[in-house]
Amino acid sequence: MVNEFDALVRNHTWDLVPAPPDCNILSNRWVFAEKTNPDGSLEREKARLVARGFEQIPGHDFGDTFSPILKPATLRLLLGIVVSQAWPLHQVDISNAFLHDTLQEEVYMRQPVGFIDPEHPDSVCRLRKSIYGLRQAPRAWFHCLSQALRDFRFVASKTDPSLFIYRADSVVLYMLVYVDDLVIIGTDSKVIQELMVHLRSRLLSGILADCLIFLAGKFTILHQA
Hints:
By secondary structure, this protein is α+β, with helices and mostly antiparallel strands. It has one domain. 24% of the residues lie in helices and 32% in strands. A 6-stranded antiparallel sheet has the order 8-9-10-11-5-12, sandwiched between helices. The longest helix has 15 residues, at 137-151. It is elongated, with a radius of gyration of 20 Å. This is Reverse transcriptase Ty1/copia-type domain-containing protein. It comes from Linum trigynum. Residues 11-215 form the Reverse transcriptase Ty1/copia-type domain. It holds the Pfam family RVT_2.
């Protein structure tokens, strides 16, 4: 919990302000989970602060919530390319994905339980950044990621907006997006590494190679010599 709270503070996720009159103040809770390694062993336990988005009011503290969902057929197609062309595959796990984009709406939330500021106990959090649990959080995150990819000259597919395509001379990269899990394949490992540097600078990412845990399934790519 302390690590998660510290990350929220470093990210300047909110400002503590006096509660405005007649505003909608969301409650929140801590959610605990375990993160596993590709072999199923425990990597670490984690805590996540989640806003109770069901308390939000349409048109008041959230608007459009649509965010595209990956089509399974697209995943199967790209896995087929990996196997047939022996392309390198990388899985990218984005740290605190929903916390990166700046909110457009005015959203207020109570201070997290266990971390109430003793000097301002009656103040509330005016959210500057998106946070898990908000109704608009998936859309805000996808917008943030899309902008980072466009800055690297990726283009979204017209048939599946969760697929991003990069073409430059003879280099081709494909990226699949499923919430905060990204899958990258391509013809040039050097360009993929340049992309990783770009994503780390914008989104604090980490990489898992060769073994893919995606959509609740585990895929191991074996290339014959």
